[in-house]
Recover the amino acids of this structure.
């Protein structure tokens, strides 16, 4: 097999209609943020695990590298190829089947290309809950969620994708299939292979299916929106919410005025509450196993106590599911409002929750000195210590020119601050190509060497998403 006869070989494996070339590849070649435009050798769309395995074997023989792609909603430039036209995009989107729901084991086994929302709906119909939830759920896939160890808005209660996964099926770089789909909650038979692949961003293997943990549906779910006078107050409200609601606290999101102002500007029909009067708003969700009345009484007591303690200045509890949905929609629209406003800078960081207010106060001041007028769009999953500490160019400025002039210095300042505060430069989006060259500054040499050793062992030809997470040199 050589690169020249690879395309006919791929056509034999998946059918000619599922090997795309030329302009047919365009929709797969640009990342969601429109920051990178790659060029694919071709896009190949297998229908089953056996086809993925054959594709991998053919690519390994030809020495051609593969970029796995699910919904292409990743935010770190990990799911699109280089510009050289030599990489194949392996799209998992045709592999969408929900293979089985095991009600007694409370698990679902699903193919990697299944869209997250479709899985949520299938599980809901079966009377259970798959709690992973994020703004891109209408188009991101389970394979992408696991490959990035996605977080989202329910992590405070249910954990991130890793915690929700009990088993994987993975096609390795040489085309072998690791069948690890047992839905076991206990299995201490050696190294944890599953957790090696979760979060590996397509650099160690192709996830083709997963067995995932399910939960009972709550009897009631309530959403509240609160104005808080400061970020200190928001963290105090989080601690109070944990005490009052315990495991019923299923969401705790924070949004600064800059973020909500953008949503108001681009989507005025969403009628963002309270944003003009306060610098910070919080979105809380409680899921109750008893009843709506029980949930409401607990929520009201929490918010009343918070007001007496002066950590909440104003609050509303959604009256019905429609209102709750509208409040969540405002929160989920921040990323879209940022995109609509223009090119922007993202930092998906985590810091110990107790240190977040000090981190933000110091770093805000530093950035305003570094790039006067920069708009700080700060929001995220405060319940997990995860901020989307994002930036927009000053109002009226040329965003592309601003980013070219300031992004490097701004990001270095943010990541150095994150490091000083004992945090992580990627809380939930991953490393991709965007943060690859930052990683060596924030991981120890021992950690990096271990990562390279694992990469070499699993992908000695460096064919799986080269240049993502780690630099691209072949590892042998
Ligand atoms: P893709 O973008 O296609 O791929 C992402 C990475 O995974 C790439 O490196 C790719 O090569 C690899 N990959 C994809 N499929 C496979 C596979 N089957 N096997 C191996 N590797 C694979 N992320 C969060 O964590 N939390 C959020 O709250 C959140 N909110 C978002 C909101 C919006 C509006 C958007 C656009 C994105 C958001 N994201 C969030 C980021 C993104 O949705 C997640 O990273 C998601 O998990 C990516 O899934 P995907 O199917 O789109 O993956
Ligand atoms: C979100 O939580 O909305 C996304 O992860 C954040 C982002 O777009 O930066
Ligand atoms: Zn997020």
């Amino acid at each position: 097999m050589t690169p020249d006869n690879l395309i006919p070989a791929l056509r034999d494996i998946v059918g000619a209609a599922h090997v795309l070339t030329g302009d047919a590849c365009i929709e797969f070649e640009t990342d969601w943020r429109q920051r990178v435009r790659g060029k694919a050798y071709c896009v190949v769309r297998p229908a089953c695990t056996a086809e993925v395995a054959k594709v991998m074997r053919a690519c390994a023989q030809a020495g051609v590298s593969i970029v796995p792609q699910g919904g292409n909603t990743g935010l770190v430039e990990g799911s699109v190829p280089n510009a050289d036209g030599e990489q194949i995009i392996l799209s998992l989107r045709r592999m969408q089947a929900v293979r089985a729901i095991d009600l007694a084991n409370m698990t679902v086994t699903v193919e990697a290309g299944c869209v997250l929302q479709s899985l949520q709906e299938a599980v809901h119909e079966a009377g259970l809950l798959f709690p992973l939830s994020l703004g891109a759920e209408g188009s991101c896939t389970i394979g992408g969620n696991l490959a990035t160890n996605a977080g989202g808005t329910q992590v405070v209660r249910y954990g991130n994708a890793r915690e929700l996964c009990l088993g994987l099926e993975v096609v390795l770089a040489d085309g072998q299939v690791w069948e690890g789909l047992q839905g076991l909650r206990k299995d201490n038979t050696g190294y944890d292979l599953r957790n090696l692949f979760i979060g590996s961003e397509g650099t160690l293997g192709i996830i083709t299916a997963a067995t995932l943990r399910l939960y009972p549906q709550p009897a009631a779910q309530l959403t509240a929106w609160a104005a808080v006078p400061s970020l200190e107050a928001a963290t105090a409200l989080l601690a109070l919410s944990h005490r009052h609601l315990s495991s019923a606290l299923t969401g705790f999101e924070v949004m600064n005025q800059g973020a909500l102002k953008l949503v108001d500007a681009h989507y005025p029909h969403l009628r963002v509450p309270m944003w003009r009067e306060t610098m910070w708003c919080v979105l809380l969700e409680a899921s109750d196993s008893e009843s709506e009345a029980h949930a409401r009484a607990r929520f009201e007591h929490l918010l009343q106590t918070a007001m007496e303690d002066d950590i909440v200045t104003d609050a509303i509890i959604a009256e019905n599911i429609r209102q709750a949905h509208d409040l969540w929609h405002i929160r989920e629209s921040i990323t879209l409002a940022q995109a609509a406003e223009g090119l922007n800078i993202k930092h998906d960081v985590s810091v110990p929750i107790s240190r977040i207010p000090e981190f933000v106060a110091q770093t805000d001041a530093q950035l305003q000195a570094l790039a006067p007028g920069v708009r700080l769009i700060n929001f995220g999953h405060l319940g997990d210590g995860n901020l989307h500490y994002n930036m927009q160019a000053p109002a009226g400025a040329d965003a592309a020119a601003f980013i070219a002039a300031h992004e490097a210095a701004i990001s270095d300042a943010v990541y150095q601050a994150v490091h000083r505060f004992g945090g992580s430069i990627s809380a939930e989006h991953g490393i991709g190509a965007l943060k690859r060259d930052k990683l060596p500054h924030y991981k120890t040499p021992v950690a990096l060497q271990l990562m390279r050793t694992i990469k070499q062992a699993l992908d000695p030809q460096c064919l799986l998403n080269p240049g993502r997470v780690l630099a691209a040199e072949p590892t042998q």
Remarks:
- The two ends are 21 Å apart (CA to CA).
- The chain has four domains: 3-91, 98-216, 220-335, 342-420.
